Amino acid sequence: MTYEYIIAEAKGRVGLITLNRPKALNALCDPLVDELGDALTEFEADENIGCIVITGSDKAFAAGADISMMKDFSYMDAYKGDYITRNWEKVKTCRKPVIAAVAGYALGGGCELAMSCDFIIAADSAQFGQPEVKLGILPGAGGTQRLPRAVGKAKAMDLCLSARMMDATEAERAGLVSRIVPADKLLEEALGAAEKIASYSLPVVMMIKENVNRAFESSLNEGLLFERRQFHAAFALEDQKEGMAAFVEKRKPAFKHR
Ligand code: CAA
């Protein structure tokens, strides 16, 4: 897979996507987001890939949507072109787990892209923010929706209205990121986490992802029912037999459906 604005490579069973537009701090121009969508689609279809990591550079995961590209947009350009929706949705719809490995700036659309992933591993250098208000716009790729779900209303309002940045420590305390690691260990940690996930039964991993996401879309009782049904369904999997037999026989499981 060869791209202009990203690098996509398989690292064992992990699909690694590196945003690679360093001169613009990985600003998310349409071609970059299209390439990201294509790479995710390829990794999702690739039987040898069990988990995906999206990362940027030491300085920036991504500094947001491309301001130069959209500065002269009319309402019709944005609406008719379905800006954001059209090509930004693939991270959300990908059925395999996607981890964001964030160092440096994750601002605006960059923060929103990270939040669209299943979880965020942050370098101690990470800075998160929704500074759109400074540009005379509002977040448009989920900032006003995913941020309050992740960190609560007070902090989400604060970040979106003040445009201030939140460092990795604050982001972890607030629940936006799952772990903080030293910047020089970020990729190693993220790939390690992804390899671990990719070693488990893929249908089970996909079910877990679907179930956790369901928690944000349903009442508690509906979510619990959905989980119970899928829990029951898991007993139809060969990998359930293998996982439990391996435990009883005190050996490592050899999952078939990876
Ligand atoms: N779009 C386009 N280009 C960008 C960019 C962006 N979002 N962010 C940075 N760049 C470019 C700069 O224009 C600059 O290019 P030149 O060298 O050609 O001038 C280059 O990247 C380096 O940037 P800086 O010189 O500004 O670097 P810095 O270290 O001084 O500052 C920064 C870093 C604080 C991240 C600053 O670049 C910045 O504030 N960027 C914009 C952040 C922002 O407002 N993001 C939200 C965008 S709108 C959005 O994302 C909408 C949405 O919800 C989808």
TrEMBL record:
Q: Signal peptide position in this chain?
A: none
Note the InterPro entries from the entry. ClpP/crotonase-like_dom_sf, Enoyl-CoA_hyd/isom_CS, Enoyl-CoA_hydra/iso, Enoyl-CoA_hydra_C
Q: Which PROSITE patterns match?
A: ENOYL_COA_HYDRATASE
Q: In which domain of life is the source organism classified?
A: Bacteria
Single Gene Ontology MF annotation: enoyl-CoA hydratase activity
- In short, the EC number is 4.2.1.17
Q: What class of enzyme is it?
A: lyase
A biological process (GO) annotation for this entry? fatty acid beta-oxidation
Q: Which Pfam families match?
A: ECH_1 (PF00378)
Q: Which UniProt keywords apply?
A: Fatty acid metabolism, Lipid metabolism, Lyase
What catalytic reaction does the record list?
Answer: a 4-saturated-(3S)-3-hydroxyacyl-CoA = a (3E)-enoyl-CoA + H2O; a (3S)-3-hydroxyacyl-CoA = a (2E)-enoyl-CoA + H2O
UniProt xrefs under Gene3D superfamilies = 2-enoyl-CoA Hydratase, Chain A, domain 1 (3.90.226.10), Lyase 2-enoyl-coa Hydratase, Chain A, domain 2 (1.10.12.10)
Q: What does this protein do?
A: Could possibly oxidize fatty acids using specific components.
Family of the protein in this entry: Belongs to the enoyl-CoA hydratase/isomerase family.
Kindly give the NCBIfam families that the UniProt entry links to this protein: PRK05862.1 (NF004517)
Q: What is this protein called?
A: enoyl-CoA hydratase
Q: Which organism is it from?
A: Azospira oryzae (strain ATCC BAA-33 / DSM 13638 / PS) (Dechlorosoma suillum)
Taxonomy, top ranks, is: Bacteria, Pseudomonadati, Pseudomonadota, Betaproteobacteria, Rhodocyclales
